[in-house]
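User: Just a sanity check before I run the rest of the batch. Below are the structure tokens for the first item. I only need the designed sequence back.
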């Protein structure tokens, strides 16, 4: 799972070595029409990872009670260009010429123990409308001050105030 590199330091040097994996995992929020049980978690994983890698990664690093891992490989979307062809031809096909394809993505559905409850973390706190309005007013005041300063220094157009 890690890059196989020779040691850069000689054996006599006492230094802590940290080995980081080349793979990555990202927790995904289930889509609205996707109803997962509380003990199932959805991950976007590196395309090089297989089910055993995902299981070992979660068990060894995060000490999670993994029971089963299922992988789904989703094909990337095709990017097509319609403008060059006025009507379908043999070269363009029925749907236009394919220019590029987004990379495939690998989705892992991980089943934990039945007593494990996963809740998607709330990273951003809810800001009330009044707090957001105060932030916007402060931002508008700072923009107004910057505009006033720019008007007083008309002969230094495009030069920041800190540059003397």
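Assistant: Here's the designed sequence for the first item:
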């Amino acid at each position: 799972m890690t890059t196989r590199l020779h040691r850069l330091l000689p054996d006599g040097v006492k230094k802590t070595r940290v080995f980081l994996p080349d793979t990555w995992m990202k927790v995904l929020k289930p889509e609205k029409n996707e109803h997962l049980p509380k003990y199932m978690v959805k991950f976007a994983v590196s395309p090089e990872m297989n089910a055993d890698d995902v299981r070992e990664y979660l068990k060894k690093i995060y000490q999670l009670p993994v029971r089963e891992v299922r992988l789904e490989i989703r094909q990337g979307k095709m990017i097509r260009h319609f403008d060059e062809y006025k009507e379908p031809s043999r070269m363009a096909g029925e749907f236009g010429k394919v220019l590029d394809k987004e990379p495939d993505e690998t989705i892992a559905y991980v089943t934990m123990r039945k007593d494990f409850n996963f809740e998607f973390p709330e990273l951003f706190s809810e800001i009330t409308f009044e707090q957001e309005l105060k932030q916007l007013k402060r931002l508008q005041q700072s923009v107004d001050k910057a505009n006033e300063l720019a008007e007083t220094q008309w002969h230094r157009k495009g030069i920041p105030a800190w540059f003397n």
